[in-house]
Amino acid sequence: MSGKWLVTGANGYLGGEVCRGLQKEDYDVCALARPGHTLDSLEKCGVTCHSYDALPGLMAEGDVFVHCAGKVCDTGLWDDYQQINVDWTLSLYEQAIQRGARCFVYVSSVAALGYSKRQSDIDLDESDEPLLTTGELYGRSKLLAEQALQQRSRTAQTRLVILRPGFIYGRRPLAPSQRWLRRGSIVDPNQRVPLVHVDNFLSALTRTGKDTNASGIFLVVDDEQPMLGELNALKLEYGILQYPPWRIGKTGFRLLCLVRNLARRLRGQGALPEGYAASQYLMRTRSLSYSTKKLKGQTGWEPAVSLEVGLQESDARKQPAPERLDS
User: Taking the model in full, what pTM does it have?
Assistant: First the structure.
């Protein structure tokens, strides 16, 4: 199949891994990042690299556009989320339409569904209604981008694919070096963690990008969706963690948010966003699980890399320290 694959956010973890994975599978890959960001490691792999300024002259009929970049942190101004995750995304899709790209793949997130508990214990799928709280800025921006893209796709020739992955990991250490005191914290060891290995995500990406019948939203989560306590036990076993995180509970979490808010004010960064504490508590106590029946049924996707294998390769003791990259 002719045409190249253009990937945004190539200087970040996911975008860079997508570029490397596509290159290994002999696709014609063009990596995109903001001006001033180095992409030397990708260039050494044979990936063509450009800044976003060059995009108008790069995109052509038959290309596949993969939008990985976005604002991912959990604090900040809503206007930034709106501008980067919503407005810019729609602008890129418009360019893809105008230049005859055959497919636009938007990397969204399970966060677009929100982390509020549902009354049913049934796995969430693409038909479930999002339930977002005030402070879920990232998830809300992803959802609004999805809705804007879907509205525009109704009159467009460029096929739209929206992937909602869980927490993507693989081919890099899962946790920084720990110290006994600064070992991190957890609120609820029974929260469920919707992981997806980067190779499993890449398989979903290429399958939906190539399949002309694949369109709309697809959840991308590994079959193994462990509870945090189970996951941390495995991390300790494989040397990814040296010490188990402190368990702080609901009261401890509230105190932590108060301290963080005070520290931000003292540094002149302003208060945390409205609803931040409530939304973060939801995320850290989530008990949601997700179904990938649609992705499997339409494309034949199966997660080839198991949690055990993925964790073993993420052992920080076996890898050099990763480069600091921004998405």
Answer: 0.93
